[in-house]
Design goal:
Blueprint (H helix, E strand, L loop, with lengths): L3 H18 L4 H20 L1 H4 L3 E12 L6 E11 L3 E14 L2 E5 L1
Keywords: Signal
Organism: Oryzomicrobium terrae
Protein name: Lipoprotein
Amino acid sequence: MRPFALRLCPLMCALMLAACAAEPNDEDIRLAYEHSLQSATGRFVGDQLAQNIKVLAAKKVACQKSAEAPGYVCDFTYRSELPVVGQRDGSAKGRFVKGEQGWLLAE
Protein backbone atom coordinates (compact mmCIF):
# COMPACT_ATOMS: atom_id res chain seq x y z
CA MET A 1 0.00 0.00 0.00
CA ARG A 2 1.34 3.42 -0.98
CA PRO A 3 1.71 6.16 1.63
CA PHE A 4 -1.22 8.54 1.85
CA ALA A 5 0.83 11.53 0.60
CA LEU A 6 1.80 9.68 -2.58
CA ARG A 7 -1.83 8.86 -3.31
CA LEU A 8 -2.77 12.53 -2.94
CA CYS A 9 0.04 13.84 -5.15
CA PRO A 10 -1.69 13.27 -8.54
CA LEU A 11 -4.88 14.92 -7.28
CA MET A 12 -3.03 17.94 -5.89
CA CYS A 13 -1.01 18.35 -9.10
CA ALA A 14 -4.18 18.24 -11.18
CA LEU A 15 -5.84 20.87 -8.99
CA MET A 16 -2.82 23.18 -9.17
CA LEU A 17 -2.67 22.90 -12.97
CA ALA A 18 -6.40 23.59 -13.23
CA ALA A 19 -6.02 26.70 -11.07
CA CYS A 20 -3.20 27.99 -13.29
CA ALA A 21 -5.33 27.55 -16.39
CA ALA A 22 -8.44 29.18 -14.93
CA GLU A 23 -9.78 32.42 -16.39
CA PRO A 24 -9.87 35.59 -14.27
CA ASN A 25 -12.73 36.05 -11.82
CA ASP A 26 -14.64 39.28 -11.06
CA GLU A 27 -12.11 40.50 -8.48
CA ASP A 28 -9.16 39.73 -10.78
CA ILE A 29 -10.83 41.78 -13.52
CA ARG A 30 -11.63 44.64 -11.12
CA LEU A 31 -8.05 44.92 -9.86
CA ALA A 32 -6.49 44.62 -13.33
CA TYR A 33 -8.87 47.20 -14.81
CA GLU A 34 -8.31 49.61 -11.91
CA HIS A 35 -4.54 49.30 -12.28
CA SER A 36 -4.81 49.86 -16.03
CA LEU A 37 -6.95 53.00 -15.59
CA GLN A 38 -4.63 54.41 -12.94
CA SER A 39 -1.53 53.74 -15.04
CA ALA A 40 -2.99 55.26 -18.21
CA THR A 41 -4.33 58.32 -16.38
CA GLY A 42 -1.11 58.80 -14.42
CA ARG A 43 0.79 59.42 -17.66
CA PHE A 44 -1.36 62.50 -18.32
CA VAL A 45 -2.30 63.95 -14.93
CA GLY A 46 0.29 62.48 -12.59
CA ASP A 47 0.26 59.48 -10.31
CA GLN A 48 -1.17 61.33 -7.32
CA LEU A 49 -4.46 62.20 -9.02
CA ALA A 50 -4.60 58.86 -10.84
CA GLN A 51 -4.63 57.01 -7.50
CA ASN A 52 -8.05 58.57 -6.84
CA ILE A 53 -9.57 56.55 -9.69
CA LYS A 54 -11.31 53.52 -8.28
CA VAL A 55 -13.08 50.58 -9.86
CA LEU A 56 -15.70 49.76 -7.26
CA ALA A 57 -17.01 46.59 -8.91
CA ALA A 58 -16.55 44.47 -12.01
CA LYS A 59 -18.67 41.61 -13.28
CA LYS A 60 -17.40 39.14 -15.84
CA VAL A 61 -19.93 38.63 -18.65
CA ALA A 62 -17.95 36.14 -20.74
CA CYS A 63 -14.34 35.01 -21.21
CA GLN A 64 -12.64 32.83 -23.74
CA LYS A 65 -9.04 31.80 -24.25
CA SER A 66 -7.33 34.19 -26.66
CA ALA A 67 -6.46 32.58 -29.99
CA GLU A 68 -3.86 35.21 -31.01
CA ALA A 69 -1.96 35.86 -27.76
CA PRO A 70 -1.62 34.53 -24.21
CA GLY A 71 -4.48 35.02 -21.78
CA TYR A 72 -8.25 35.39 -21.94
CA VAL A 73 -10.41 37.89 -23.79
CA CYS A 74 -13.22 38.93 -21.47
CA ASP A 75 -16.31 41.10 -21.74
CA PHE A 76 -17.16 42.75 -18.43
CA THR A 77 -19.25 45.45 -16.81
CA TYR A 78 -17.91 47.80 -14.17
CA ARG A 79 -18.69 50.64 -11.81
CA SER A 80 -15.94 53.21 -11.40
CA GLU A 81 -15.49 56.34 -9.34
CA LEU A 82 -13.60 59.20 -10.96
CA PRO A 83 -12.55 62.53 -9.48
CA VAL A 84 -14.95 65.34 -10.46
CA VAL A 85 -17.15 62.96 -12.53
CA GLY A 86 -18.26 60.67 -9.70
CA GLN A 87 -19.58 57.14 -10.18
CA ARG A 88 -20.05 55.72 -13.66
CA ASP A 89 -21.23 52.39 -14.99
CA GLY A 90 -19.88 50.94 -18.19
CA SER A 91 -18.84 47.87 -20.10
CA ALA A 92 -15.57 46.92 -21.74
CA LYS A 93 -13.63 44.12 -23.35
CA GLY A 94 -10.00 43.28 -22.73
CA ARG A 95 -7.34 40.60 -22.83
CA PHE A 96 -6.24 39.49 -19.37
CA VAL A 97 -2.88 37.82 -18.79
CA LYS A 98 -1.73 36.13 -15.60
CA GLY A 99 1.47 37.76 -14.32
CA GLU A 100 3.72 37.06 -11.36
CA GLN A 101 1.71 39.41 -9.13
CA GLY A 102 -1.77 38.67 -10.47
CA TRP A 103 -3.81 39.39 -13.56
CA LEU A 104 -2.95 42.26 -15.92
CA LEU A 105 -5.05 43.94 -18.58
CA ALA A 106 -2.94 43.76 -21.74
CA GLU A 107 -2.90 46.80 -24.02
